[in-house]
Batch of 4 targets.
Target 1
Amino acid sequence: MVNGEHFHMVEILKVHAEVLARVHSDAFVESWNAEDFASSLDQPGALGFIAVRDADDEPLGFVLLRVSLFEFDDGGVGEVLTLASRPPVRRLGVARALMNAALTTAAKQGVTRVFLDVAADNVAALALYESLGFAEVGRRKAYYARGLDPRMDAIMMARDIGA
């Protein structure tokens, strides 16, 4: 339970592509479709979790990462491809729980550093990532499409995890 919302984590599988697309479209103006998710889940190292409400099995949000491990190094890197939570459960701890589950799993797989991109104007997400120990490492100019609005910069962030 996080802030009164009882939910559990389900490991993301390719069969969840439609569900992920629905949640993503609730969370973002420019969203991925089911084919985008199926393609991402086909990639080596894809992992993630869906937060599912206990009472009715409603998906509340999800996180999707890609992990790359290196034999010649002391571990590997992870990249958060997307994190989404439905608007009614924002700021209730669902995204934080998803990120914690993903970071823990990535660390167990040998990942030592995780990267992500976040829109420069997404104040809530920036606060979440900073509170989880991520720090800005760069910027991608005009990275995010915003429909008819001007494109938005992406802030690149990173955090060391694991051993």
Target 2
Amino acid sequence: MLIGAIEIPLRSALDCETAYEWIGGETILRTISGAGIRQETWKRLRATVTGSGWLPPGLAAVDTTQQHVVAFAAVVAVTCNGSRQATLPAGRRSDSGHEPYAVALFADGSQLPTPVAILANVATADAVTGAVGYQVLYYPQITAWVSRSPLSQDHAGASWRWDLIIEEV
């Protein structure tokens, strides 16, 4: 994971968990007959990242008064509905080792990696015989506010624990 130019060292995140949540201005309005009408005015990504490891993560260097480009290490999947294509957000990683990739899904629950071509923000997975569906997976990269985390050390276990809350601007 990168926060601007700051990379959390591997030994600081030996045990790491990322939870993604879509937040937004959304509601269901009711007509006079009681029928529901969904209204959504905006949507942004919020992530909570918790980790622990043998070294402190060095997060004191993160300036929380500034927005940062945050590149995540946990993937998000987009299911291709009835086709081999999925529209990906522009906010995604494309650096080496973090490019989007695709998997073919089979009726027995198995999956098989398949090549993917990306044109603008549309990803097209290569066809695989017998596949019943496809998913394209990508690593998010967003401009966000980063909330400073508590940092704790387990002296007996010789480990550090930390967490971050990251909200897209």
Target 3
Amino acid sequence: MTHFLKDILRQPVELQRTIELFAGTNGAGRATLEAAAAAIRSARHVYLTGIGSSWHAALNVGAMFYQHAHPVYLLDADELVRFGAFPRNSAMIIISRSGKSTEIVQLARKASKAGVKVIGITNVPESPLGKEANHAIVVPIALDHAISVNTYTTLALAVGMLASSVVQEGSSLQGLKPSEKGTGAPELKLRPGKDSQLAESLSHAFAEAGRAIPAWQELIAKSVWLKPHSAAYFLARGSSLGSACEARLMWEEGVKSPASSMGTGSFRHGPQEIVNKGVRFGIWIDVTQMREQDFALARDLRKLGASVMLIGQKLPEDAGDLVFQLPAIPAGWQSLIDIIPAQLVAERLAGLSAVDCDTFRLSSFIVEDEGGLLPKEAKNSEDSAAKDAASE
């Protein structure tokens, strides 16, 4: 069993631990989360940022802010470091699993010097981000072996809980009320004091996702969707857009194969010209928005010879070549579990492609310097070789 798969399998438990940390009056992280939410609500300008997998978590949670008329500036950490100037009365949510990436460290210091209230969300309390932040929200889980799995979803959950507290403009987390119409999945409702319902709903979804993993693995083992060295495109909307981007990154890091990701709507404005026989598509279906239109897109892609994987709630079994049914989870929170099937596919495809998904050839686990791709040892070795050749 790969380390990647081991990390995937423990994910429902880690998500449950995280919800217990921040939900309810006895949650150890509750007070810090509420203080951070108050700082964000009092700010005139709010930034939401990260880099790598953490940036994808920011994309997912950004939709929650926008859907509740609480806009945030979404820009990745490197762009903010190089090109951002921050107005007064600003707050910045910075997400980073290690809290040590060079862009994250530089950005936190730059924001602090500008008088910005920094909310750091990280898995490592003693990190530079944790120390620099005005409010450090720490999710103390076991770090992943290589590819970000638990560090991705647990940080996304923590940021989601923070966003939920901010947008309901109250001191406690918003609860949930089952929907009486639509798909049957519960919807987010602004009901202060009912945060236990949110915790229960998410906990149930995490447990059901964990129980679904063996069936998902059986589907994957039998599916012809998995084909080594094929072109892959990942499409999503709203709170799952980060899931599509994260899947693309897993293909690049774990399968060692190029891939693309974008909004489903954006794909229909030009990029569809690449569609031909053999191209693999992964499409995340939102629980409330544009479902029939996205099913129509999947049908057309298949008619054109492409192979389609669908991930979502209450999907027709024949809507794709590989269909993953998700358990009910509130609208806006689906991204916490809709990445799991894609993780399982990436791990299996790496094996079929005869590549090591547990080892990075070029990338560091934590990028603490700037410029180039090769590790310092390799650069020094090449420089020495070049000098020796020049002297001969």
Target 4
Amino acid sequence: MEQLVECIPNFSEGRRPAVIEAIAAVVVRTPGVRLLGVQSDTSHNRCVLTFVGSPEAVKGAALAATRRAVALIDMNQHHGEHPRVGAVDVIPFVPLAGVRMEDCVAIARALGREIWTELRVPVFFYAEAATQPERQRLATIRKGEYEGLPTKLADPAWVPDVGNPSPHPTAGVTVVGARQPLIAYNVNLITEDVEIARKVARAVRASSGGLEHVQAIGVRNARGSAQVSVNLLDFTKTPLARVFEFIQREATQYGVEIADSEIVGLVPLAAIADVARSALRLAGFGREQILEARLMDLDEP
């Protein structure tokens, strides 16, 4: 079976197309890697690349992209709505085929060592690659953001997993990990009041007693409207439609409606099938009833 790993690095640049293109270009040039998508957001001031390939090829592409981003992004000039700790904010590896989670953990840790050795950017490991329980959650590592790194890293409890306890002068730190697929999902509200989005986010996220497997923050989007930005960690346990319905119900309590929603990056087909099943109340509907999915199955050896 072919070994296939997905990598979805997030970079702290969403406003300079030339920089985004330069980072994507080094991924495209990496043998054995397919770039599946590039998505950027000017309000968040970050971009997300999605690429797949063999474990070694994907690790090589991630290092090349990191090298380019560190050369082109100065965090001292960076401002955006989304929390971040470095020029290369986070690099997750996801097992797709013929690869175990343990393999992705090994890739993440090897890449972290290479980033420090070559670029002198300190690295934290998170999710399945975390070395300490309190570092499993990305939000915990990001707390204090880039501006708070000198103080945070001076705390013995927050010495980086790899590298010295001081941030790179322009690139900050990088967080590398291994995880299951997640869905990055934004819900835009018909209001400019970001505080409402923050209240809705607080209600929906798991850490505040909301829906399990949901992380959420309230921010302002590129249109100037309030947005609930969600990471859905396990759509098989908490379906996407349930997240939308919960946010809709909470927003209504403040007299606010939803303008639209958007998926950042790629999404598993099964998650969209779940939405169709919920919205249309389809009984017994499954992947095997989706034409394109069946065609893909026929193409497999």
